[in-house]
Every structure is written in structure tokens, then in C-alpha cells.
């Protein structure tokens, strides 16, 4: 399939990912992607290069625009995307957090969106498994002018407590400090990582937790957990949407408000 197929995006008004070679290449490398969180063809580093070359320095809105442009015109990426990104934007704006915790930085796109939606004085702390992705996100954030509000911590909450301890000791993640969480990393880690967050009492009453990819590729345990807890510790809105940068594959985003006193 020719590389020019990346530019064929729509049939009958629907954006179809299967017409894009970069999407097919991502599927071919899915084993690497789910282990290392990079496709393996250099597209993540290319995204940072593209942002630095095409977005106005210090312009957050333009950085977001340029990332979306890259994902539509050049290489399909697994970040939250523009459609689901608007759900995330609204959730962060409503929560009015002082501290946002993200699980799964990838290349920093969702971080850009959250910083834009955060109130003045709020900070983002993002946990990323892959150090190469963390370095890419730092480049993107620095170019957008938000490096003073967004920090990447290389690690995982499933490492026996090392990353959690670092978040508490070095990044101000303390009991009741977190007003919003965005979960977009390994799908089988959604439930154990949320349970760790609750066990360490990081969430304030009324905190909002947004979880991506509940339908595709799917996090059924997390969906079951939130549905079972509805009306108790959690109040959840289920947003029917589409997987990133296309309109063929359906997805589900959960936006859950935490009220421990109702448990």
C-alpha cells in the first residue's frame, strides 16, 4: 500500500483508519506496542520533530493543533485524539483540580489538553512507563511552553511501590491532593492502579477520574467495577464516542466522580 494512502481519510463522510498505511503498520507492531508503548517505526520521535518544526513556540493551542495535524496527515497515533480529548477537556474544567495525575503520558498530547483546561496554579504529574516516550513528551511540552506546569515521572504504579513513593516524596501527591486523574495506559492496570490510588488516599472528595479505551481495545474489569460502585463511592457518566482519529471504531470513555462518604 503506498504511503500516499495515509492521506485518504474519508468515504461517505466517515473517517476510516484502515485506509491508512500508518494504521496498518501499527497493527502489525501491536505486540511491541503493548509491551514497549512505541510502534517501532519512529513515529513518536517524528511527532516531536514535527511539533518543534511547525508549531509556534510557546503557543499551547497551536501545539495541540499541530499534533492533531500530524496524526491525521502523517502517522496514526494512539493518544486520546481530538474527539475524546474534548470529553477530557470538559471533565478537567469542571473538576477545577489543584493537582492532576495522569497514568500513561505517551507523547504528551493529553497532557497538553489537560494543562489548557486546568485552572491557574494547577499542576500535572504524569506517569509514563517508557523513558523514550517521557523524553518526547518533555520536548513537546517545552516547545508548547508548559514545562513549568507538567512533569513526567518515569515508572509505573505496579512496580511494588517505588513510583508511588516517589510521587509522594518528590511531586506533592499526598492524601487528598489529587482532584483529577486521567487513565490511559495498560488496560489490565486500570483497576489495580485505581485501587492503589484509593488505598493511598490521594483523591479528594469530588475528584474526577477519566478512563479512556473502555470499549476499544477494552477495559471490561474497570467498566464492571464502576458500574457496581455506581451510587456508592462513584458517580459515573459513560460517554459513547470513537477510537482516536477515525469514526469507524466505537469506544467508551468513563468519567467518574469520587464520593468516598457514600461508600
UniProtKB/TrEMBL annotation:
PROSITE patterns: SAM_OMT_I. Keywords: Methyltransferase, S-adenosyl-L-methionine, Transferase. It holds the Pfam family Methyltransf_3. Coiled coil: none annotated. The keyword Ribonucleoprotein does not apply. It comes from the Bacteria. The keyword S-adenosyl-L-methionine applies. Transmembrane segments: none annotated. PANTHER family: CATECHOL O-METHYLTRANSFERASE 1-RELATED. This is O-methyltransferase. It comes from Paraconexibacter antarcticus. The lineage of its organism: Bacteria, Bacillati, Actinomycetota, Thermoleophilia, Solirubrobacterales.
